[in-house]
Design goal:
The complex is a heterotrimer of chains A (352), B (178) and C (304). Helix content of chain A is 43%, strand content 14%. Chain A has 352 residues and is an alpha+beta fold. Chain A is globular and about 95 Å long. In chain A, 34% of the residues are buried. Chain B is globular. Chain B has one domain (9-177): Bacterial phosphonate metabolism protein PhnH (Rossmann fold, 3-Layer(aba) Sandwich). Chain C is α/β, with parallel strands linked by helices and 304 residues long. Helices cover 26% and strands 15% of the residues of chain C. In chain C, the strands form three sheets. Chain C has a six-stranded mixed beta sheet, covered by helices on one side. A three-stranded antiparallel beta sheet of chain C has the order 6-5-9, with no helix packed on it. In chain C, strands 10-11 form a two-stranded antiparallel ribbon. The longest helix of chain C has 16 residues, at 20-35. Chain C is globular, with a radius of gyration of 20 Å. The chains are: A alpha+beta (352), B alpha/beta (178), C alpha/beta (304). Chains in contact: A-B, A-C, B-C. At the B-C interface, helix 1 of B face helix 2, strand 1, helix 4 and helix 5 of C.
Chain lengths: 352, 178, 304
Amino acid sequence: MAYVATRGGERAIKQSERLFRAAMGKIDAARVTEVKQALPYLVDRVMGEASLYDLDLAALALAQTGGELYEAVLLLRAWRTTQPRLCVAEPVQQQDLFTHRRISAAFKDIPGGQVLGPTPDYAHRILATDVLEGTPFVPEPVEPGAKPSPAYQPSVSAWQAKNDLVDLPKPESLHGNDIPDLTREPLLFPSKRAHTLQSLARAETGGVLALGYAAMRGYGQAHPTVNELRLAEAEVVVKHPNGTAFSAGRVKISQAEVVSKQGEKLGLGFAATMGWNEVKCISAATLDLNSKGAPKGTPTEEEFFLYHTEGVESSGFCIHFKLPHYVTFQSSLDAMRDAKAKSVDVAKEPVK
Amino acid sequence: MLNTPVQGVDEAAANKTFEALLWALSRPGLASNLSAASDEAIIDALIDRECRVYSADPQLMSNILCSGATVSEVKDADHVFLGALRDLASLDDISKGSALYPNEGATVVLRVALNKGRKIRLSGPGVKTVLDIQIAGLPDGFWQNRAEMFCYPAGFDLFLRDGRQVIGIPRSTIVEVL
Amino acid sequence: MSLKSLTKPWQSMSYGFLDPSAKRELRRKMLKSVAVPGCQMPYASREVPMARGWGTGALQVSLTLLNPQMCVKVIDQGADDSVNAASIRRFLARVSGAPTTLDTLEAHLIQSRHRIPEEFLREDQILVLQVPNPEPLRSVQPNMSIARQMHADADYGRMWLQLYEQIVRSGRIMQGASYPSMVNGRHVMTPSPIPRWDVPKLNMSKHLTILSAGREKRIFAVPPYTRVEPLVFDDVPYQVEDHGALTCKRSGAKGFFMNEIPQDDGTSAFEVSDSEYGVKSIRQRDGEAVNLGGTWYKHGEMPK
């Protein structure tokens, strides 16, 4: 009797992958285009969590994984990590963002105005079942306003700072290569500010929401007011080695500022991510707001929420429990049996 | 779907040099062979834009700059190339990390002559019992100075190169001058 | 300087999958981990085409070390034919062209999850262990920052206390795999979830062991000829799994770590966990000329 040949294992993994892929069928450029056009918010979410801004690659990742989000993000990150780094873009200032949507819950009106922009917030969530009956759902055309909203606007916190209501964080004077990069160095605590914001930008949306929600419900000290929520496009400005600065294109970004009363001033929490993802930004900013002085081991402590909202790591660890663990199990079994035998021996001893 | 990528000349050299460095540091005092008889081989295998490098040897500068590394003062450098060491003072500022961050202890590369000169006795991890070796080209008092500066696990790690040959002396090695 | 001079010719994939920059970082961190045996060194840990927790840390180490001449063996729970081992072996070979083997004696590089082979490893071999949780203090201190400080202070009192409490409650130390061990008399490390049976194989061994946790982004090492001592009390000796007297029902090999296979009649049968050692034992029994290497355990006991 021989051991199972290695080929058995290799055949099994090959066939199980084929079974998985069979459900998606052929993937071609048209499929990728369809995903990109039909699911922009999903594509955005995946790009944010993968920290790779490329609509085609993100749509391809979604097509290739059949929408298994954790797999799609991993696929993109594994591709991203092997790419050469040519240069570091210039910092983006808030007032230079091409703004599509910008709202504040803190004031009725704000300098620059409330700009609703694209949102389903006030839509009635009624499933368009007619589509299944053969009546296509055709969105009504947008009617442009008489006067367009200004495309470039300052942040609300800038006004508050002028009125001595909030202390803005001192902008770090680091440039280019000197900015700490989470993808090139490990996260250590206390975390560098850049690492915290990068980590939140890459975090898994559901995870950030869960912990942010815990903070909102009372497992944090600060109740957030949405100072400003913004959906925008940012210009990616890079420098050619000969010194000329030029725009390499625009990327969609979202950002949130949340505030709460802290003594006589407002405490400020901030988060931003690539792509348009409001839930993630508000949750992440709430965690940021609550992290200062948070007790160790609570959901609002930086180490706690940054580690546990890392989607690639948490999902990978979760599914790794499917791997065989019979060696470790055997080792525990041995200790348990021995301990049991020992306790039986003790019980047998005559009482003195 | 996937063709096996070919190992290029640069990659092969860096791979071989690292294999030599890892082998040497794992077996303090025993020599192994780099891909070339130069500090540049070590730079190509280890250094890139993530690093801060100090070099006392101006000839290494073009390689260091090409790697994208930041050229820095000794105290901020994670990799220190001192060439042939003339005086002990240059060791004082080398980063030794701390008990909390032993990873911040620098990697130091020196040029020496192996198998001649002062006899020293090595012990510690990587050495089965003790190992006696000879190294020339280090200033007097070097090993005593090293012992006084270190508070394990803080310290720096040495690569001593003679032509293609390199030996490693990690901070965990106890060195006794015979 | 032009953009072109900053880039290399386009390749669909770097040799060994990882790009040169990722490899250089791993090289630097591997050197540091060897320099301070048993001390966890943080590293960036790039994503690789496998899920976190499936050996991505060890995979990055293997990918950095591999070259077309290096013969590689991959095992999971002692078995070469486990699906994950097969998958990793196939990936390593695909991206590096390295030859693969199942025989411990032929391998230069062994990537393993949760076992150390039963045959002696030599000076020219490197063992890379997959590590799910690199922090031995996690069970007494889940906060990484505080645990780091405890390592800095060599403050292992709570670790000892935990072991002592187990003896008081259960009459023995209940730690199964991942037995905390003191390295070079300074740093307590987890040897990864290898059984207690395998921990003594790390002590003063001839080979280099690198332990890498990809998800947790920590790498540590046990150089050759380094003391690795399981934490024990002077009057309560270290106890490996009670497998010394068991016999493999397939190969007849005796005195090695076994897999327990529950039987229909309520009893258990045993198979040697090091699958290729089992295969070689069967071949030898059947009269083939097989090269069986010397083993750490002799007649089910580790000689002092």
